Write a sequence for this structure.
């Protein structure tokens, strides 16, 4: 049975052979795989430029065999703007965490989306700063315990979870704004379709396509990967409901 | 009647034993074993290999893309 002609799921060649540095079960790996599969299926491996963030996704360039730029913290949309304007025949996407996109990089993402740059934004919202040891992010839930909110996020002290994707959906520069997740086979397949649509949009001069993926950070959340998936279902989805916010 | 049969191959050295594939298997084919790989993870194994239908669920959710799935129709 183990013959190439019988294979119904195999690793795409757009993924390199490197073992990802991510913690076991981390959603970053799943989203990398989906982007790689979309690039493979669209046949655009030599036409795609990724912009990696500061955050756990910083080494994305080690895992997808495409052209990459590595941006300063939060500045991926600015680099992607330049890459796309100078190379309009290329598919250009940013890959950003919630600390990168919704905290230090808020200005860049808002203005790139408001200008309607013809880029794809992949936004990994795990409600925490994973890379630096699990500090509160703007997206951290009310009551969520992090390294910097040991008694839980308190709105009087820390404000409210920032629903930046809802804000971005209001901007006339965006054409497709959606919130997905990747914790079971159904949601993984849906998220892949969303990423594909976003990549296709970027060549249609319709404006910015923005795909949020609600993900887990089991290390930051101090849970096992399987527990983290359940915690996400129970706590993240009520605050960050899944689905399309805009599709024109 | 034709039956669908599947099988999986796990790249043991790359598996991190995260276990997120295990609950997605409709036929309870897979589980984390007691053995560890070179990185010290209890890697995933097909403990009931005969029950696999090749549905691809486990491979689809694997963050490290270490599962290859094969499927054939068998007559009889
Ligand atoms: C200018 C600057 N400020 C702060 C940092 C420290 N820093 C590194 S990653 C990070 C946050 C990462 O969080 P997020 O974007 O959510 O990514 P995750 O690791 O959760 O995927 C911070 C604050 C930095 N590297 N550079
Ligand atoms: S710290 Fe969190 S986001 Fe970073 S690799 Fe680990 S699980 Fe993923
Ligand atoms: S999901 Fe992948 S890495 Fe995690 S236990 Fe299963 S095979 Fe291993
Ligand atoms: S392919 Fe389907 S049936 Fe086979 S082990 Fe994976 S999840 Fe189970
Ligand atoms: Mg984060």
């Amino acid at each position: 049975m183990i013959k190439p002609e019988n294979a119904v799921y195999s690793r795409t060649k757009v993924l390199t052979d490197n073992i990802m540095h991510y913690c076991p079960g981390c959603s970053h790996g799943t989203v990398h795989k989906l982007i790689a599969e979309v690039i493979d299926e669209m046949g655009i491996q030599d036409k795609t430029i990724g912009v990696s963030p500061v955050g756990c996704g910083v080494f994305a360039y080690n895992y997808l065999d495409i052209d990459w730029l590595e941006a300063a913290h939060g500045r991926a949309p600015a680099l992607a703007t330049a890459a796309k304007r100078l190379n309009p025949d290329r598919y250009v996407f940013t890959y950003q965490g919630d600390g990168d996109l919704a905290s230090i990089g808020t200005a860049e993402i808002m203005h790139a989306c408001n200008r309607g740059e013809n880029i794809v934004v992949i936004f990994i919202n795990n409600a925490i700063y994973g890379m630096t040891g699990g500090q509160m992010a703007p997206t951290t839930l009310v009551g969520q315990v992090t390294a910097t909110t040991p008694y839980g996020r308190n709105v009087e002290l820390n404000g409210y979870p920032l629903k930046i994707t809802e804000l971005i959906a209001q901007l006339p520069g965006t054409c497709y704004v959606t919130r997905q997740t990747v914790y079971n086979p159904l949601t993984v397949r849906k998220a892949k379709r969303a990423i594909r649509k976003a990549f296709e949009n970027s060549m249609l001069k319709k404006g910015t396509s923005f795909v949020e993926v609600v993900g887990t950070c089991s290390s930051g959340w101090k849970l096992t990967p399987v527990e983290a998936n359940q915690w996400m279902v129970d706590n993240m989805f009520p605050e960050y409901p899944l689905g399309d916010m805009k599709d024109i | 009647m034709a039956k669908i049969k599947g099988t999986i191959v796990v790249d043991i050295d790359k598996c991190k034993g995260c276990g997120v594939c295990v609950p997605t298997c409709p036929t309870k084919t897979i589980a984390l074993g007691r053995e560890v790989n070179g990185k010290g993870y209890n890697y995933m194994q097909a403990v009931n290999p005969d029950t696999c239908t090749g549905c691809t669920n486990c491979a689809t959710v694997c963050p490290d893309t270490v599962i290859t799935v094969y499927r054939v129709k068998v007559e009889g």
Q: What stands out?
A: Chain A has one domain: 4-247. Residues A 22-23, 26, 28, 56, 126, 130-131, 217-220 surround iron/sulfur cluster (ligand 2) (CB under 6 Å).
